[in-house]
C-alpha cells in the first residue's frame, strides 16, 4: 500500500475502532480526557508506523496495546494518579507479555459492556443537550471538533468548549463508568435515545443554513442507533428508534430536488425511496413489537413512518391509522408538537377543517410561539379550505421564523402561489 492508501486505511480504522478504544481505556483510567488523549497517542503511533510496517491484521487490538503502553509511560513520567498507576502498571506489564491475538480474545468479551458504558456516560442527563450531542459525536462518532462544528453550523471554539465543559462536569460529579440499573436505566436510556434522535433530526431537517438535509448526520445517528440495538437487544424503544430512523432515512434521496430544493412528503417520487432501509426499518419495528408491552413513543412514531413506507403512492396512505396512532402518542407523551402533528394527520384523514380546529387551539400555546411549523401547517390547511389570503399570511409568517434558507424559499413560494390564487 502507498502512504496515502495507508493513511486512508488508518482513517477508516479510527472511525470504526475509536469508540471501542476509548471505552476500554475509560474502564481502566476512569477519566474520559485521559482515555481520549491516550487513544490519540495510539493514532499518532499508527500514522508513524503503519506506512512502513503495513496495517496489522487486528488493527483494533494493535491500537489498544499502543494506547495502554503510552498510558503507562505517561503515568510513570509525570507521576499522575499514583494509585491508578500502580494498579494499571501491574496489569499492563503482564498484558505486554501476551501476543496480539491474546489481546483480541481479552477484548472480545468486555468491549460491548465498555461501549455501552461509554454511550451512557456521553449522554448523561447532567449535561446539556448540546454538550451530550457534541461529546457523543466526539467519543462515539470519532468526529473532530471541526466536523461537529461544521455539521451544526456553530463556531469550532464553541464545540470545543462544550466538550471540555462536559468532561469537566462528568469528572467533578464523579459519574460512575457503568451501565445504570433498575429505575435509573429508563431515565438514562431516554437521554441516550434523545441524543441520537436529535443528531438524526438535524440531518433530516436542518434547523439552519443553506441545506435542507445533511445526510452525513443521519448516517452517523443510524450507525449509533444500530450499535445501541446490538448492545441493548432487549430494549424495545432502542429498536423503535432504530426503526424510525431507518424508515425516515429511506426518504432522504427523494426529499430534495436536483438543485437542493425541498420536496414535501406528498410530492416525493417514491421510486427514490431506499427499499433496503425500509426493509431494515420494518424489521426493527417487528423486533420492538415482539418484545411485548405497550409501544413507546419512538416505536409509535416508527409505526406511523411504516404507514408511509407501505403506501405505494401518496393517495394510498392510511391516514386514518396514522391519526389513530397519533391519538395514542398524544396520550402517552402529550406535547404541543405531537398535537400539531396530530392536526396534520386529522386534516388528511377527516378533512382540513378538522385539522384546522386543532391547529387554531395551538395558536395560544406559548411553547409554539416561535415554532415555524405552526403557521406552516395552518397555512396549508387554510389553503386547502380556499382561504388563500389567510394562508398567504401564515406562510409568510413561517418564512420569517425559520432559519433554514431552503425552507424559507419554499414557504415564500407557497405564499406567492396563494397570492396568485
Please give the structural blueprint.
Layout: H1 3-29, H2 32-53, H3 59-78, H4 82-95, H5 100-108, H6 111-122, H7 129-139, H8 145-152, H9 156-172, H10 183-204, E1 208-209, H11 215-231, H12 236-249, H13 275-290, H14 297-310, H15 319-332, H16 336-350, H17 352-362, H18 373-384, H19 388-401, E2 403-404, H20 405-420
Parallel strand pairs: 1-2
Care to describe what's here?
- The protein has 421 residues and is mainly alpha-helical.
- Helices cover 72% and strands 1% of the residues.
- Strands 1-2 form a two-stranded parallel sheet.
- Helix 1 crosses helix 6.
- The radius of gyration is 25 Å and the shape is elongated.
- The chain starts with a helix and ends with a helix.
- About 4% of the residues have low confidence.
